[in-house]
Design brief:
Layout lengths: L3 H5 L3 H21 L1 H12 L9 H17 L3 H32 L8 H31 L10 H12 L8 H29 L10 H31 L5 H4 L12 H12 L8 H25 L9
Helix pairs in contact: 2-5, 2-12, 3-4, 3-12, 5-6, 6-7, 6-8, 8-9, 9-12
Protein backbone atom coordinates (compact mmCIF):
# COMPACT_ATOMS: atom_id res chain seq x y z
CA UNK A 1 0.00 0.00 0.00
CA UNK A 2 1.38 3.37 -0.99
CA UNK A 3 1.78 6.48 1.13
CA UNK A 4 -1.27 8.66 1.73
CA UNK A 5 0.09 11.38 -0.53
CA UNK A 6 0.31 8.92 -3.38
CA UNK A 7 -3.21 7.71 -2.75
CA UNK A 8 -4.51 11.23 -3.06
CA UNK A 9 -3.99 11.67 -6.77
CA UNK A 10 -2.58 10.22 -9.96
CA UNK A 11 -0.77 11.93 -12.82
CA UNK A 12 -2.71 12.73 -15.99
CA UNK A 13 -0.50 10.19 -17.73
CA UNK A 14 -1.55 7.42 -15.35
CA UNK A 15 -5.21 8.38 -15.66
CA UNK A 16 -4.97 8.36 -19.45
CA UNK A 17 -3.25 4.98 -19.49
CA UNK A 18 -5.85 3.58 -17.10
CA UNK A 19 -8.66 4.80 -19.38
CA UNK A 20 -6.99 3.25 -22.42
CA UNK A 21 -6.48 -0.05 -20.60
CA UNK A 22 -10.09 -0.09 -19.37
CA UNK A 23 -11.47 0.73 -22.80
CA UNK A 24 -9.44 -1.98 -24.52
CA UNK A 25 -10.44 -4.46 -21.84
CA UNK A 26 -14.11 -3.79 -22.52
CA UNK A 27 -13.81 -3.92 -26.31
CA UNK A 28 -11.76 -7.12 -26.41
CA UNK A 29 -13.90 -8.96 -23.87
CA UNK A 30 -17.23 -8.10 -25.49
CA UNK A 31 -16.14 -8.86 -29.06
CA UNK A 32 -14.93 -12.29 -27.93
CA UNK A 33 -18.45 -13.24 -26.79
CA UNK A 34 -20.61 -11.13 -29.16
CA UNK A 35 -22.68 -14.05 -30.57
CA UNK A 36 -23.61 -15.19 -27.07
CA UNK A 37 -24.48 -11.61 -26.08
CA UNK A 38 -26.90 -11.33 -29.01
CA UNK A 39 -28.42 -14.75 -28.26
CA UNK A 40 -28.98 -13.76 -24.63
CA UNK A 41 -30.88 -10.61 -25.63
CA UNK A 42 -33.00 -12.45 -28.21
CA UNK A 43 -33.96 -15.06 -25.61
CA UNK A 44 -34.78 -12.36 -23.04
CA UNK A 45 -37.27 -10.50 -25.25
CA UNK A 46 -38.91 -13.29 -27.28
CA UNK A 47 -41.83 -13.65 -24.86
CA UNK A 48 -43.74 -16.92 -25.30
CA UNK A 49 -42.24 -17.52 -28.74
CA UNK A 50 -39.96 -20.55 -28.98
CA UNK A 51 -37.56 -19.40 -31.68
CA UNK A 52 -34.48 -19.65 -29.46
CA UNK A 53 -34.67 -22.60 -27.09
CA UNK A 54 -31.06 -23.25 -26.16
CA UNK A 55 -27.47 -22.13 -26.59
CA UNK A 56 -26.42 -24.44 -29.41
CA UNK A 57 -29.82 -24.31 -31.13
CA UNK A 58 -29.84 -20.52 -30.92
CA UNK A 59 -26.34 -20.12 -32.33
CA UNK A 60 -27.11 -22.53 -35.19
CA UNK A 61 -30.39 -20.70 -35.93
CA UNK A 62 -28.64 -17.32 -36.06
CA UNK A 63 -25.83 -18.67 -38.23
CA UNK A 64 -28.22 -20.39 -40.64
CA UNK A 65 -30.62 -17.46 -41.10
CA UNK A 66 -28.29 -14.47 -40.75
CA UNK A 67 -24.78 -15.77 -41.30
CA UNK A 68 -21.61 -14.91 -39.38
CA UNK A 69 -22.27 -11.17 -39.71
CA UNK A 70 -25.68 -11.68 -38.13
CA UNK A 71 -24.10 -13.37 -35.13
CA UNK A 72 -22.10 -10.21 -34.48
CA UNK A 73 -24.98 -7.83 -35.18
CA UNK A 74 -24.95 -4.91 -32.79
CA UNK A 75 -21.37 -5.59 -31.67
CA UNK A 76 -20.06 -2.38 -33.23
CA UNK A 77 -22.63 -0.40 -31.28
CA UNK A 78 -21.91 -2.48 -28.22
CA UNK A 79 -18.19 -1.69 -28.44
CA UNK A 80 -18.91 2.01 -28.93
CA UNK A 81 -20.82 1.79 -25.65
CA UNK A 82 -18.66 -0.65 -23.73
CA UNK A 83 -15.29 0.97 -24.47
CA UNK A 84 -16.09 4.26 -22.67
CA UNK A 85 -18.23 2.40 -20.12
CA UNK A 86 -15.40 0.05 -19.24
CA UNK A 87 -12.82 2.86 -19.22
CA UNK A 88 -14.91 4.97 -16.84
CA UNK A 89 -15.84 1.97 -14.69
CA UNK A 90 -12.28 0.74 -14.12
CA UNK A 91 -10.90 4.23 -13.52
CA UNK A 92 -13.74 5.12 -11.14
CA UNK A 93 -13.26 1.93 -9.14
CA UNK A 94 -9.56 2.55 -8.95
CA UNK A 95 -10.01 6.12 -7.75
CA UNK A 96 -12.78 5.29 -5.28
CA UNK A 97 -10.56 2.56 -3.83
CA UNK A 98 -7.70 5.02 -3.50
CA UNK A 99 -9.88 7.60 -1.79
CA UNK A 100 -11.31 5.05 0.64
CA UNK A 101 -7.87 3.62 1.40
CA UNK A 102 -6.44 7.09 1.91
CA UNK A 103 -9.30 7.99 4.25
CA UNK A 104 -8.64 4.85 6.30
CA UNK A 105 -4.96 5.73 6.57
CA UNK A 106 -5.72 9.28 7.68
CA UNK A 107 -7.85 7.85 10.48
CA UNK A 108 -5.15 5.56 11.80
CA UNK A 109 -6.00 2.43 9.84
CA UNK A 110 -3.78 0.32 7.62
CA UNK A 111 -5.63 1.39 4.47
CA UNK A 112 -6.56 -2.17 3.50
CA UNK A 113 -9.74 -2.59 1.45
CA UNK A 114 -12.22 -5.06 2.94
CA UNK A 115 -14.64 -7.08 0.76
CA UNK A 116 -17.50 -4.79 1.82
CA UNK A 117 -15.54 -1.66 0.86
CA UNK A 118 -14.65 -3.23 -2.49
CA UNK A 119 -18.34 -3.99 -3.02
CA UNK A 120 -19.22 -0.34 -2.33
CA UNK A 121 -16.48 0.98 -4.63
CA UNK A 122 -17.51 -1.44 -7.37
CA UNK A 123 -21.16 -0.45 -7.05
CA UNK A 124 -20.27 3.24 -7.35
CA UNK A 125 -18.08 2.57 -10.37
CA UNK A 126 -20.82 0.54 -12.03
CA UNK A 127 -23.48 3.23 -11.53
CA UNK A 128 -21.25 5.99 -12.93
CA UNK A 129 -20.04 3.92 -15.88
CA UNK A 130 -23.52 2.68 -16.79
CA UNK A 131 -25.22 6.05 -16.43
CA UNK A 132 -22.60 7.77 -18.59
CA UNK A 133 -23.31 5.47 -21.54
CA UNK A 134 -26.90 4.29 -21.00
CA UNK A 135 -28.51 5.76 -24.18
CA UNK A 136 -25.96 3.79 -26.22
CA UNK A 137 -27.02 0.61 -24.42
CA UNK A 138 -30.65 1.33 -25.23
CA UNK A 139 -29.87 1.84 -28.94
CA UNK A 140 -27.60 -1.20 -28.98
CA UNK A 141 -30.40 -3.36 -27.59
CA UNK A 142 -32.74 -2.32 -30.42
CA UNK A 143 -30.09 -2.89 -33.10
CA UNK A 144 -29.16 -6.28 -31.66
CA UNK A 145 -32.71 -7.60 -31.52
CA UNK A 146 -33.89 -6.66 -35.00
CA UNK A 147 -33.48 -9.25 -37.74
CA UNK A 148 -34.15 -9.33 -41.49
CA UNK A 149 -37.93 -9.25 -40.96
CA UNK A 150 -38.00 -6.59 -38.27
CA UNK A 151 -35.18 -4.40 -39.63
CA UNK A 152 -36.12 -0.79 -38.87
CA UNK A 153 -32.85 0.88 -37.88
CA UNK A 154 -29.90 1.37 -40.24
CA UNK A 155 -27.34 2.28 -37.60
CA UNK A 156 -26.64 4.07 -34.34
CA UNK A 157 -27.50 7.61 -35.46
CA UNK A 158 -30.54 6.53 -37.46
CA UNK A 159 -31.86 4.46 -34.56
CA UNK A 160 -31.31 7.30 -32.10
CA UNK A 161 -33.13 9.83 -34.31
CA UNK A 162 -36.03 7.44 -34.94
CA UNK A 163 -36.45 6.48 -31.29
CA UNK A 164 -36.47 10.13 -30.21
CA UNK A 165 -38.89 11.07 -33.02
CA UNK A 166 -41.37 8.23 -32.41
CA UNK A 167 -41.07 7.69 -28.67
CA UNK A 168 -39.56 10.88 -27.27
CA UNK A 169 -36.14 11.72 -25.82
CA UNK A 170 -36.90 10.00 -22.53
CA UNK A 171 -37.22 6.69 -24.41
CA UNK A 172 -33.40 6.59 -24.57
CA UNK A 173 -33.48 6.05 -20.80
CA UNK A 174 -36.05 3.23 -20.71
CA UNK A 175 -34.97 0.61 -18.20
CA UNK A 176 -32.49 2.93 -16.47
CA UNK A 177 -33.86 2.32 -12.94
CA UNK A 178 -33.57 -1.48 -12.98
CA UNK A 179 -30.16 -0.99 -14.56
CA UNK A 180 -29.04 1.17 -11.62
CA UNK A 181 -30.42 -1.34 -9.14
CA UNK A 182 -28.92 -4.27 -11.05
CA UNK A 183 -25.49 -2.74 -11.52
CA UNK A 184 -25.00 -2.39 -7.75
CA UNK A 185 -24.76 -6.14 -7.03
CA UNK A 186 -23.41 -7.03 -10.48
CA UNK A 187 -20.42 -4.70 -10.87
CA UNK A 188 -19.98 -4.46 -7.11
CA UNK A 189 -19.64 -8.22 -6.78
CA UNK A 190 -17.44 -8.45 -9.88
CA UNK A 191 -14.79 -6.21 -8.35
CA UNK A 192 -15.30 -7.47 -4.81
CA UNK A 193 -15.03 -11.17 -5.65
CA UNK A 194 -12.17 -10.71 -8.13
CA UNK A 195 -9.99 -8.65 -5.80
CA UNK A 196 -10.82 -10.79 -2.75
CA UNK A 197 -10.05 -14.04 -4.56
CA UNK A 198 -6.70 -12.69 -5.70
CA UNK A 199 -5.95 -11.67 -2.11
CA UNK A 200 -6.81 -15.18 -0.88
CA UNK A 201 -4.55 -16.75 -3.53
CA UNK A 202 -1.67 -14.44 -2.61
CA UNK A 203 -2.05 -15.33 1.08
CA UNK A 204 -1.99 -19.02 0.16
CA UNK A 205 1.29 -18.47 -1.69
CA UNK A 206 2.77 -16.42 1.13
CA UNK A 207 5.36 -13.91 0.03
CA UNK A 208 4.39 -13.75 -3.63
CA UNK A 209 3.77 -10.47 -5.40
CA UNK A 210 0.61 -9.93 -7.45
CA UNK A 211 2.71 -9.81 -10.60
CA UNK A 212 3.56 -13.47 -9.98
CA UNK A 213 -0.06 -14.54 -10.48
CA UNK A 214 -0.45 -16.42 -13.75
CA UNK A 215 -2.91 -15.37 -16.45
CA UNK A 216 -4.88 -18.58 -15.85
CA UNK A 217 -5.19 -17.79 -12.13
CA UNK A 218 -6.50 -14.31 -12.91
CA UNK A 219 -8.87 -15.72 -15.53
CA UNK A 220 -10.24 -18.17 -12.96
CA UNK A 221 -10.76 -15.36 -10.41
CA UNK A 222 -12.51 -13.27 -13.06
CA UNK A 223 -14.74 -16.17 -14.10
CA UNK A 224 -15.94 -16.78 -10.55
CA UNK A 225 -16.48 -13.04 -10.05
CA UNK A 226 -18.52 -12.66 -13.24
CA UNK A 227 -20.68 -15.70 -12.56
CA UNK A 228 -21.46 -14.58 -9.01
CA UNK A 229 -22.43 -11.04 -9.98
CA UNK A 230 -24.51 -12.11 -12.96
CA UNK A 231 -26.53 -14.69 -11.02
CA UNK A 232 -27.62 -12.10 -8.45
CA UNK A 233 -28.42 -9.32 -10.94
CA UNK A 234 -29.83 -11.27 -13.91
CA UNK A 235 -33.58 -10.79 -13.30
CA UNK A 236 -33.05 -7.02 -13.34
CA UNK A 237 -31.18 -7.35 -16.63
CA UNK A 238 -34.17 -9.16 -18.15
CA UNK A 239 -36.53 -6.42 -16.95
CA UNK A 240 -34.20 -3.71 -18.24
CA UNK A 241 -34.05 -5.28 -21.70
CA UNK A 242 -37.81 -5.75 -21.89
CA UNK A 243 -38.42 -2.15 -20.88
CA UNK A 244 -36.01 -1.04 -23.61
CA UNK A 245 -38.05 -2.97 -26.19
CA UNK A 246 -41.38 -1.75 -24.79
CA UNK A 247 -43.18 0.54 -27.23
CA UNK A 248 -41.08 -0.46 -30.25
CA UNK A 249 -43.18 -1.46 -33.25
CA UNK A 250 -40.54 -3.98 -34.32
CA UNK A 251 -41.07 -5.89 -31.09
CA UNK A 252 -44.45 -7.04 -32.40
CA UNK A 253 -42.73 -9.43 -34.79
CA UNK A 254 -40.66 -10.85 -31.96
CA UNK A 255 -43.82 -11.60 -29.99
CA UNK A 256 -45.92 -12.63 -32.99
CA UNK A 257 -45.64 -16.34 -32.24
CA UNK A 258 -46.58 -15.59 -28.66
CA UNK A 259 -49.70 -13.77 -29.77
CA UNK A 260 -49.04 -10.18 -28.72
CA UNK A 261 -46.60 -7.35 -28.38
CA UNK A 262 -45.92 -6.29 -24.81
CA UNK A 263 -45.82 -2.68 -23.60
CA UNK A 264 -44.89 -2.16 -19.96
CA UNK A 265 -45.78 0.78 -17.73
CA UNK A 266 -42.62 0.55 -15.65
CA UNK A 267 -40.24 -1.71 -13.76
CA UNK A 268 -42.77 -3.08 -11.29
CA UNK A 269 -45.35 -3.73 -14.01
CA UNK A 270 -42.72 -5.53 -16.09
CA UNK A 271 -41.74 -7.76 -13.16
CA UNK A 272 -45.33 -8.62 -12.28
CA UNK A 273 -46.56 -9.25 -15.82
CA UNK A 274 -43.52 -11.30 -16.75
CA UNK A 275 -43.97 -13.59 -13.74
CA UNK A 276 -47.77 -13.76 -14.17
CA UNK A 277 -47.74 -14.48 -17.91
CA UNK A 278 -44.57 -16.55 -18.24
CA UNK A 279 -43.65 -17.70 -14.75
CA UNK A 280 -40.66 -16.95 -12.51
CA UNK A 281 -38.38 -18.83 -14.90
CA UNK A 282 -38.89 -16.06 -17.43
CA UNK A 283 -36.78 -13.76 -15.23
CA UNK A 284 -33.86 -16.06 -16.00
CA UNK A 285 -34.39 -16.50 -19.75
CA UNK A 286 -31.07 -16.54 -21.53
CA UNK A 287 -29.16 -17.16 -18.29
CA UNK A 288 -27.25 -20.20 -19.57
CA UNK A 289 -25.86 -18.52 -22.69
CA UNK A 290 -25.14 -15.57 -20.45
CA UNK A 291 -23.14 -17.77 -18.08
CA UNK A 292 -21.15 -19.05 -21.04
CA UNK A 293 -20.66 -15.43 -22.10
CA UNK A 294 -19.94 -13.94 -18.69
CA UNK A 295 -17.28 -16.44 -17.63
CA UNK A 296 -14.83 -15.54 -20.42
CA UNK A 297 -16.02 -11.94 -20.80
CA UNK A 298 -15.41 -10.73 -17.24
CA UNK A 299 -12.26 -12.81 -16.94
CA UNK A 300 -10.84 -11.42 -20.20
CA UNK A 301 -11.78 -7.86 -19.19
CA UNK A 302 -9.93 -8.00 -15.85
CA UNK A 303 -6.87 -9.73 -17.26
CA UNK A 304 -6.68 -7.46 -20.33
CA UNK A 305 -6.95 -4.40 -18.08
CA UNK A 306 -4.16 -5.52 -15.80
CA UNK A 307 -1.91 -6.74 -18.62
CA UNK A 308 -2.31 -3.47 -20.52
CA UNK A 309 -1.52 -1.43 -17.42
CA UNK A 310 1.55 -3.55 -16.82
CA UNK A 311 2.70 -3.07 -20.43
CA UNK A 312 2.19 0.68 -20.18
CA UNK A 313 4.06 0.90 -16.89
CA UNK A 314 1.13 1.79 -14.62
CA UNK A 315 0.79 0.15 -11.19
CA UNK A 316 -0.81 -3.26 -11.60
CA UNK A 317 -3.09 -3.72 -8.60
CA UNK A 318 -6.55 -2.18 -9.13
CA UNK A 319 -7.10 -1.39 -5.46
CA UNK A 320 -3.52 -0.59 -4.54
Amino acid sequence: MGEPSKAKSLSWSSIGKSLIAGGLAGGVSRTAVAPLERLKILMQVQGNAKVYTGVWQGLVHMSKHEGIRGMFKGNGTNCIRIVPNSAVKFLTYEQLSRRISHHLQENGGDGQMTPLLRLAAGAGAGIIGMSATYPLDMVRGRLTVQDAKTRQYRGILHATRLIVKEEGLIALWKGWLPSVIGVIPYVGLNFCVYETLKEVVLKFYDGRDERDLSVMTRLACGAVAGTTGQTVAYPLDVVRRRLQMSGWAGAQALHAEGGHAVIYKGMTDCFMRTVKEEGVKALFKGLWPNYIKVVPSIAIAFVTYEQMKELMGVELRISS
